[in-house]
């Protein structure tokens, strides 16, 4: 007999607003209150405040809402949002909170995940790593849409919980070379013949120049190519076109552009990259993060290092200047090739970069897995590194540093390292890579 699925009862959203006292704060930075036996998560509300709100979603036990009016007792953590479209735009969610409160929320989130998921706690909490909180984004994907009703093109981040593009003139978290000209960029696209066939723009900022990659779904006429090239030349931007896969880019202006790059001046390292490559979005914070990683690894000249998920060599190349040898392993073959090229450019000859799928069960036969390493660095994507952890047991590394972009998978993996592989969690802390968002970037140190 086929299973019968009970259809969820749809609850109509009330038109009238509701008044309630906010008693808590979720990991996403939403205020928590309780109404009619439901837990309600209220965007832009803070603990200790009485607010008027309207529901945006209701289920039998949980609801979501947005603030209509702050009625009394504003929280001491509340600040005036800088952006005119804050609350509508999905690019930020915490501009109503002070920077100190944002850091406190992220640190609390990290520690709660470690406790509840990994069943562990660090011996010591590292001081938070912070950088600029405005104009910090050097990488972004902007949505583009021609809106017939408005007879205009919109360029920006998508609205919160929506596929619509936010109607905005500027963005204060984007690097100013792009964030301050969104309205002009939208007007340029509006004047193109294929304005309805450009769904997104990739932004990539190097130390010396900025690049825009225009995704287009139809062949771009010569007249449109000229308009985009002229616009980017006028605003000192490199222009690229993408008609196929993300890494299939065609330079538009200049025809032979200088490669994008960023410096790690403390280590005399320069990393070159293409606009489609993964790089950290916050260049200043990245420099501080690399310094902290190397400090926490406690490298000695005779050490051999394993750098898993090494990418372009962001950590590998600086580490190589403080150790005997670095083996970097990465799942994307083109990134491995670029890491090797970056090592050559920087005249670093004590590195080895290997292409390997770090989630493949057949890894056990890889020669690099059978070697011993003094230190191991893990910098995985959001899915974490749980598949590779069992292979680390025989390497006898005294210290492991884990850089994480998702506290839940870090907590899960930390539980394995401590409870199954015999390590101790000695340090953990947050790094504010994404100010004004609930994204938690963190670092943890494990020791035998």
Could you describe the 3D structure shown?
With 448 residues, the protein is of the alpha/beta class. It has 3 domains: 18-78, Beta Barrel (OB fold (Dihydrolipoamide Acetyltransferase, E2P)), CATH 2.40.50; 104-132 and 282-447, Vaccinia Virus protein VP39 (Rossmann fold), CATH 3.40.50; 139-260, OB fold (Dihydrolipoamide Acetyltransferase, E2P). The chain has 8 helices and 22 strands. The chain has helices at 99-116, 176-179, 182-190, 222-234, 283-297, 316-320, 333-345, 407-419; strands at 18-21, 24-25, 31-35, 38-43, 50-58, 62-72, 124-125, 139-147, 152-156, 200-205, 210-215, 237-242, 249-253, 260-264, 269-273, 304-308, 325-330, 351-355, 375-378, 399-404, 424-431, 441-447. The strands form 4 sheets. An 8-stranded mixed β-sheet has the order 7-21-22-20-19-16-17-18, with helices on both faces. Strands 1-5-6-4-3-2 form a 6-stranded mixed β-sheet, with no helix packed on it.
How would you summarize this macromolecular structure in one to three sentences?
The protein has 448 residues and is of the alpha/beta class.
- Head-to-tail CA distance between termini: 54 Å
Rg from alpha-carbon coordinates: 24 Å
Overall CATH class of the largest domain: Alpha Beta
Strand percentage lies at 25-35%
CATH topology of the largest domain: Rossmann fold
Arrangement of strands in the largest sheet: 7-21-22-20-19-16-17-18
Helix segment count? 8
Judging from the principal axes of the Cα atoms, what is the shape?
Answer: globular
How many strand elements?
A: 22
Stretches where pLDDT is under 50 for at least 5 consecutive residues are 1-7
Output the helix-strand order: EEEEEEHEEEHHEEHEEEEHEHEHEEEHEE
Largest sheet: 8 strands, mixed
Estimated helix fraction: 10-25%
Number of domains: 3
- Assign the CATH superfamily of the largest domain: Vaccinia Virus protein VP39
């Amino acid at each position: 007999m086929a299973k019968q699925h009970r259809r969820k009862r749809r609850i109509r959203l009330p038109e009238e607003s509701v008044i309630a006292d906010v008693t808590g704060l979720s990991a996403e930075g939403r205020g928590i209150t309780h109404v009619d036996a439901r837990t309600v998560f209220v965007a832009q509300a803070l603990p200790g405040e009485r607010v008027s709100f309207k529901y945006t979603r209701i289920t039998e036990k949980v609801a979501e809402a947005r603030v209509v009016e702050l009625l009394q007792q504003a929280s001491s953590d509340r600040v005036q949002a800088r952006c005119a479209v804050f609350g509508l735009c999905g690019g930020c969610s915490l501009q109503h909170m002070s920077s100190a409160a944002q850091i406190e929320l992220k640190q609390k989130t990290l520690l709660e995940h470690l406790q509840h998921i990994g069943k562990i706690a660090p011996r010591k909490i590292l001081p938070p790593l912070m950088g600029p909180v405005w104009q910090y984004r050097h990488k972004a994907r902007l949505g583009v849409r021609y809106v017939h009703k408005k007879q205009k093109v919109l360029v920006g981040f998508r609205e919160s919980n929506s596929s619509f593009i936010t109607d905005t003139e500027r963005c204060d978290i984007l690097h100013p070379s792009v964030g301050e000209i969104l309205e002009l960029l939208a007007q340029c696209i509006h004047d193109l013949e294929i304005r309805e066939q450009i769904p997104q723009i990739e932004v990539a900022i190097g130390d010396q120049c900025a690049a825009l990659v225009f995704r287009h779904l139809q062949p771009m006429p010569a007249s449109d190519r000229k308009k985009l090239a002229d616009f980017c030349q006028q605003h000192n931007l490199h222009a690229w076109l993408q008609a196929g896969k993300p890494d299939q880019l065609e330079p538009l202006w200049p025809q032979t552009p200088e490669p994008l790059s960023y410096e790690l001046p403390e280590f005399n390292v320069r990393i070159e990259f293409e606009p489609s490559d993964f790089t950290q979005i916050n260049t200043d914070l990245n420099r501080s993060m690399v310094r902290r990683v190397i400090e926490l690894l406690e490298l000695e000249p005779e050490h051999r290092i394993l750098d898993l998920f090494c990418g372009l060599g962001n950590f590998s190349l600086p580490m190589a200047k403080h150790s005997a040898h670095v083996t970097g392993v990465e799942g994307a073959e083109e990134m491995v090739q670029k890491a090797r090229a970056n090592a050559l450019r920087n005249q670093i000859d004590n590195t080895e970069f290997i292409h390997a799928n770090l989630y493949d069960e057949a890894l056990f036969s890889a020669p690099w897995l059978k070697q011993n390493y003094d230190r191991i660095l893990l910098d995985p994507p959001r899915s974490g590194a749980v598949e590779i952890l069992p292979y680390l047991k025989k390497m006898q590394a005294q210290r492991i540093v884990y850089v994480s972009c998702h506290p839940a998978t870090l907590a899960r993996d930390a539980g394995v390292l401590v409870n199954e592989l015999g390590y101790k969690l000695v340090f953990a802390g947050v790094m504010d890579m994404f100010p004004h968002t609930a994204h938690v970037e963190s670092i943890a140190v494990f020791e035998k």
